[in-house]
Amino acid sequence: MNPLAALSAAALLAALAVAQDPDVADAAAAPRLCVLVSVDQLAQWVFDAARPHLAADGGFARLLAEGAEFADCRYAHACTETGPGHTTIGTGVAARVHGIVRNQWWVREKAAKTYCVDEPMAALPDLPEGKNRGAGLQRAPTLAAAMEARDPRSVTVSVAWKDRSAILMAGAKADLAVWCESSTGRFVTNTAWTATAPAWLLEFNAKKPLDQWFGTSWECSGPASAYALLVDNRPYELAHGNGSQQRTLPQPLTGGLPQPGPAYYTQIYASPFGNTAVRLCAEAAIRAFALGKDDIVDLLCVGFAATDVMGHVFGADSVEARDGLLRLDRDLALLLASLDREVGVGRYELFLTADHGVAPTPEWVRAQGVDAGRRVIQTFVGAACEKALANEFGAPPAGRKFLAHVGEWSVFFDDATLDAVRGARSLAEVRTAAARALAAIAPKVPGIAAAYATEDLLAKGPGDDPIAQSLVEALYDGRAGEVQLVVKPHWLDGATPATHGTPHPYDRAVVGIAVGRGVPRKTVVAQPITPGFGAVWFAERLGLPRPVGAVDVVPPELRGGR
């Protein structure tokens, strides 16, 4: 072969290799499938503590090897709960814009709380558990809605254990939102998304996928070194839900029942196998909808919630929570392998994050010399505020109180009571005076760090106060109380071992990992982002309008080739 011919042959082979590698061929080409993954309660500090113990062939190791990790991914809003977080993941904006300000919030007109996915909605005859759930309280469009508006042939499927996770990530315009009901152990949906129960979902439920673990034992899956710095059987952990009254591993998965039933499914929810069930359902959905099989870009949302439940029940610094994360690592690897098979390597892009973080267990950090504690903080706030307002305005009318509701770290006034004691002042003047008075009184209650009159927060702005800024990002007109409360760091309101919902770094700073064409491998990105980055990034990748109100900017290193 002459040298010119040999050169030509080599060039042809090189060109073919480039054409077969989608990463090299066209870093700007749109993926066939976009994937948003939420790992419920995956705080950055929790991930960092577990990182040395994750498997070399696990899902996290693969994502970090093939993609970019964000060193500073944190929520702008203070309302670090499941509903607000998943809505941010799906819309790209903070609660101030999307309106889902808590998992539940006080509604003045009803004098009651509403759940973030409460919506009158008919059930499907084959899936009656799915009734009265919908995305009607969202006030910002999701990425799924933008994709559907551009091309109605685009398919969006969202699968999670929690109804609010599946529904709020994808929104009303999704083709299907699917969640699990612990009462029956079935994955369900309703008429908000489909007129008839999907055949594939009925088939999936018919196999009773959650029943496969009945009678088996939840044991530590990692090496002893993975749990070496953790203490099992701590007295403030809750007991496993099988009637054993024990707080250790291993534990039988029975729910204390002779056969699978609601208590057993609830125990599965509080174990790593709740995440495995979600993974299996997501894989069934990928196959059923043939996601990513054609040139129309589809969207898959997956919400792993068992990590959150294990954190609440046992503490995020527990043996159980650590094992749950190690097992999720394996489930992620299997999900990625399924995407490789069904969609194709390099043909899908993925952003993994969390809906919120979590605080360390108060007793655990207090033993290490940190100021921490627990009590019914908001109950004491309510009592102190009632007393302060009675001193200020006189006793309220018989049978009435000044406060309609204290909860979700917010204080709501009873306007009828204020109107009765306002004298010559207008109701607005009295409300302002009362809010400022309570903002001064509340921090005197043990466990409260600060309080703000909502009116002043909005009128004056937060200035350079990061806590106040996060509170502003959590306020939505008509869904905010007159006073905003800030709990002291590492203090907890209630009896569960651990929780979240505050503006403190352990609740707002979460994991963020992006994998896709043009994303440099094994990279740590310093530019700060919010967990809404995935929706912003995918919108830019697909040439869709930027989400209105989004603050994230795609960094330059995610725009070039590898």
Instruction: Output the number of helix runs.
Output: 21
Helix content: 25-40%
Largest sheet: 9 strands, mixed
Topology, number of strands = 21
Strand numbers in spatial order across the main sheet = 8-7-6-11-1-12-20-2-21
Task: Tell me the layout of helices and strands.
Layout lengths: L2 H18 L1 H4 L7 E7 L4 H7 L8 H8 L1 E3 L2 E2 L7 H10 L3 H4 L5 E4 L4 E4 L27 H8 L5 E5 L2 H8 L5 E6 L4 E3 L10 H8 L10 E2 L32 E2 L9 H8 L3 H17 L8 E7 L1 H9 L4 H24 L5 E6 L8 H5 L6 E3 L1 H17 L9 E5 L2 E4 L1 H7 L5 H15 L6 E6 H7 L5 H7 L10 E5 L3 E3 L11 H4 E2 L2 E3 L7 E3 L7 H10 L20
Parallel strand pairs: 1-11, 1-12, 2-21, 6-7, 6-11, 13-18
Antiparallel strand pairs: 2-20, 3-19, 4-5, 7-8, 9-10, 12-20, 14-15, 15-17, 16-17
Helix pairs in contact: 4-13, 5-8, 11-13, 12-13, 15-17
Describe, in plain words, how this protein is organized in 3D.
With 562 residues, the protein is an alpha/beta fold. It has 2 domains: 32-202 and 266-364 and 506-555, Alkaline Phosphatase, subunit A (3-Layer(aba) Sandwich); 373-488, Gyrase A, domain 2 (2-Layer Sandwich), CATH 3.30.1360. 36% of the residues lie in helices and 15% in strands. The chain has a 9-stranded mixed β-sheet with strand order 8-7-6-11-1-12-20-2-21, with helices on both faces. β7 (176-181) and β8 form a beta hairpin. α4 (59-66) packs across α13. The longest helix is centred in the middle third of the chain and has 24 residues, at 319-342. The model is unreliable at 1-25 (pLDDT under 50).
